Amino acid sequence: MSRAHDFKLALTRVIEPTRGPGAELVTLEDAARFVGLMKPWRQARPHWDFAAELLLTAAETREESDIEMATAQMERALRVEGVVVMPREGAIIFRDLVGELDVLRIECDKCGRKGQYRVDHLIEQYGLDAKLFDWEPEADCPRKQAKNLNDICGARCPDLSKVV
Ligand SMILES: [Zn+2]
Questions:
Q1: How far apart are alpha carbons 14 and 24 in whole angstroms?
Q2: Banded model confidence at residue 78, pLDDT cuts 50, 70, 90
Q3: Distance 103 CA to ligand 1 centre (A)
Q4: Beta strand pairing call for 10-15 and 25-27
Q5: Which segments of the chain are extended strands (E)?
Q6: 113 C-alpha vs ligand 1 centroid, how far in Å?
Q7: What is the average pLDDT value for the chain, to the nearest integer?
Q8: What pLDDT digit, counting tens, does each position of 94-126 carry?
Q9: Span from the CA of 115 to the centroid of ligand 1 (angstroms)
Q10: Contact between residue 106 and residue 117 where contact means Cβ atoms under 8 Å apart
Q11: How close are the terminal C-alpha atoms of the chain, in Å?
Q12: Rounded to 10 degrees, what is the CA torsion of 13, 18, 21, 23?
């Protein structure tokens, strides 16, 4: 490794792949090694190729913005492969509901609507690691569809407080 490159720098965020070689990725070196240990056919995929290039750039410039770009690309690439849970910033993901709820109920007092969705169907459709509120439970509410900001829909999921 050239002295011009500093691979000991920490990534902007620790990345925890759910499978693959090694555990957490903390430094540029961890990430570079992770990419380096892949099978060549996988490594040659554009998202990994780009990640490797950004890691190299970050190690060279040591700029925070370059490190952030490399970190984000690693996360993106891992997500493409389904290997990492994206940082969820406190958001509820469907994985949290597994084993807890079979059915997700939606109630909207304002629209007078009650609906329910099977959790396994939602997961099939959106994926285990999708954020719950990327899916719009209130999508079927007339007020939601009207998009009138003066009269917004009040849909909520009454069961969620028991789960999280
Ligand atoms: Zn509503």
A1: 7
A2: confident
A3: 19
A4: antiparallel
A5: 10-15, 25-27, 103-108, 113-118
A6: 7
A7: 83
A8: 888 888 899 988 888 888 888 888 999 988 888
A9: 11
A10: yes
A11: 46
A12: 50
